[in-house]
Amino acid sequence: MNKETIINNLKALQPEKLSYFERLVLEDQGQYYQPDIASLADADCMDIYHRINDVAEHGCSGGSCSSLIYNDEIVIFHDKHEDDIWDILEQYAEDTGTTAIKMIDDICLKQTRCSASRILDIKLWAAWVAVEIVCQRLSDMLTGEIELSEVA
Description:
With 152 residues, this protein is mostly helical. It has seven helices and no strands.
């Protein structure tokens, strides 16, 4: 991890080139900062990066997404952004040789008290996994694994 690269890439992000959902996740993870990312202090940039990277590495289910902790909040989030969530899941699943519902079902099978036959569990895991996928992409942008010129 090159701190300078992360800071420069975060400050260079052009929100209009990000997808709606990427902007939404970035805003959620950087919620304590002013909207003008380019003017953030270096320490604030690193804090946003660490928040994004924590979700990318450890997932949402541990509470690292402050707005996706309680079931009712997650269901509202899922229902509001359902098309975007399932588009992200379908693309990721296609890239990995499966289907979105199979991917969510496989995740549920690994969890205690989770059933892909329960719509609540499907919505929870679909929302979490979509945010995790986006955080991984944002983390890759910030570390330089994805060139900012390739975004959009």
